[in-house]
Every structure is written in C-alpha cells, then in structure tokens.
Specification:
199 residues; alpha+beta; 10 strands; extended
Length: 199
C-alpha cells in the first residue's frame, strides 16, 4: 500500500461549512469491509453551507462517497493540508484500474495467454492480474447503432434517429449507455452505397 506523509489539521464543522467542492480535503480511506488506518484525498460533493444540521458528504478520488460528522471524535474527521498541523498517512492515487473487454479475432486460449504475457511484460508481473475472465465466442459481425427517444410518437419516420456509432461489434453495445431519455436501436450493418453518378 503506497502512502505519503502529509502535514494537515483536523477541521471543525464550522470550518468545513466554509469549504466548497473545489477545496482539497482528506477523509478516512476506510471502505466497506476494509478498515484502513489512513486517509484519502477527497472533496465535498456540494458547498459546505448546504449541509447545515446534517453530515457532510465527501467523495474520495477513488469514487467512495462518505458521510462525515467532523466533530464526532469516533470518526476520522475532515482534514486539510496545513504546515503547522500534524502528520497523517495519505493514500497515493497514482494507480488506475482498467476493466478490459478484448475482442480477439479467431481467438483461442493460446492467443489469450499471449496477450496476458505481453501485458505482464509491459507493466510488470505483479501489476497485471486476471480478476475474472469471460471467454465467449462472438460472431465476427458488425451492427449499426442508433439512438431514439424512449417515448417516440407513433407513425413517425426514422428522421429523429441519431446515428451514434457505425460499424460497431455487438459485444461492445453491452458496455455503452444511451443518453438520458433515449434508447438504443441495434440493426444489422448496411454498407453505405453512394450511387451518385460520376463523370
């Protein structure tokens, strides 16, 4: 676990109420089922003055949302960098977790092992890990992906369609989300044929 020593001081509820989402703070790095005796960089989810009478809500750089009562001695509290303060341990946020979905044409176990070996060679044996692996045979076809309003009027033409992506593999559609108020329409891919006469 990579941590760094940061000089900081604990804030009172009154001091936190003067902060906003743009201010850098530190909150407990403990997550559900994983008690960590250190802090994580974070920011308030809204202006501190909006949390009067309730707990402050902070989001860490790791995406964890935490409800905090700064004056509660049993909690880690909210800290801010201060050279006159005390040293605390802060988790470094240098790592990035990638969830990869790879399409391997004519893929077999040998080609998957080669990909895994190449990734480990590039980033290090202790860095690249297989957490879960779903090897599924997928057809090597392409589809056209459209977006349509979820509440479309009946008997309307397809003019309200918004072509979101061309030549997309069906398996990739699983990892996309439509815009708010829109739904995906997946159709077999049709090559665009330009039959404009040329001279």
């Amino acid at each position: 676990m990579n941590t760094e020593k940061v000089t900081a001081r604990r804030l009172t509820a009154g001091e936190v109420s003067e902060l906003g989402p743009q201010d850098d703070i530190f909150v407990s790095a403990a997550t559900d089922g994983l008690p960590l005796d250190c802090y994580a960089p974070a920011f308030l989810t809204g202006p501190g003055k909006n949390f009067e009478g309730g707990s402050f809500i902070a989001r860490t750089v790791f995406g964890e949302e935490i409800h905090i009562l700064p004056d509660n001695a049993e909690e880690g509290g909210i800290w801010v960098a201060d050279k006159a303060g005390e040293e605390i341990e802060v988790l470094q946020s240098a790592g990035v977790l990638l969830n990869l979905a790879l399409f391997v044409p004519n893929g077999n176990q040998e080609s998957l092992d080669s990909l895994y070996s190449a990734a480990r060679d590039a980033f290090g044996v202790g860095i690249v890990q297989r957490w879960s692996e779903e090897a599924v045979a997928v057809p090597d076809v392409k589809v056209d992906l459209y977006e349509e309003p979820t509440r479309g009027r009946k008997n309307t033409s397809s003019q309200n369609r918004d072509r979101r992506a061309l030549d997309i593999y069906p398996t990739r559609v699983r990892f996309l989300e439509p815009s708010d108020g829109w739904k995906f329409i997946v159709e077999p891919h049709k090559e665009i044929v330009d039959d404009t006469p040329t001279i």
